[in-house]
Amino acid sequence: MTSVESLLAGSGRGVQTATLDDGTEVVVKSGEPSSIAAEAAGLRWLAEPGAVAVPEVLGTGEGRMVTTRVPSGRADAGAAERFGRELAALHGAGAPAFGSRPPGGPVHAWIGEARMVNETGDDWPSWYAEHRVLPYARQARDQGTFSADDVALVERACASFPDVAAPAEAPARLHGDLWTGNVLWDGDRAWVIDPAAHGGHHETDLAMLALFGAPQLETVLAAYDEAAPLADGWRDRVGLHQLFPLLVHTVLFGGGYGARALAICEHLARST
């Protein structure tokens, strides 16, 4: 008998697909319990406003989650326009604070395979520096990827954040790991998976979409801007918001990600 309960009781790790007895196609994901708990809470929180399409969480267990399977298709202009509007609506649903976790989610969460702490703050520039930039720069130093001088450069860049950030705004409800691999298309709309959801700045999700070249990106951005006009100079701030994912990738993979992050920091440090 293939049921949600039987799948949650199964063994193994990673991502698998299955079909329930009623014909529903599902995805079974297994992993570190706090990572699964954070992802499940994030999916439910993103689904709450009814804005973006997300897989339905059918059940969770200790380190195991069953969700509906996303239909497969391709990205076209109509789906991209719809996604831009839906993403604007998701962000507009808001969050209690910068760094706030989804209800029921852990404070000590994850972004991909890296740990992410959801401590809250009221001021975006200082919160972003303290909880989304400096922890990963210092971890890269501890791993030997960054030098002490590299971390000092990141710290100087962080000092510029109050001057270069967008005008103050209320916290947005973020997907938090919105790179192109976490956006799936079914021909009619986009679906988002694998969130690192938290309260943040809406430009962070948009910058992460651009980081690895999402399909139909300019169409998505134009539709977003029409639904929720972006603040002047937002394109100039893309690098600022990409620091977070680039430093996470530096910690996980090293290589050129650290160089890209440091180049952005050089630019930011010169702006003060």
Automatic annotation (TrEMBL):
Domain of life of the source: Bacteria
Annotated coiled-coil segments of the chain: none
InterPro entries in the record: Fructo-/Ketosamine-3-kinase, Kinase-like_dom_sf
Key words of the record: Kinase, Transferase
GO MF terms, alphabetically ordered: kinase activity
Keyword Transferase: yes
Xref: SUPFAM superfamilies: Protein kinase-like (PK-like) (SSF56112)
Pfam families registered for this protein in UniProt: Fructosamin_kin
Similarity comment text for this entry: Belongs to the fructosamine kinase family.
Protein name as catalogued: Fructosamine kinase family protein
Source organism: Actinomycetospora chibensis
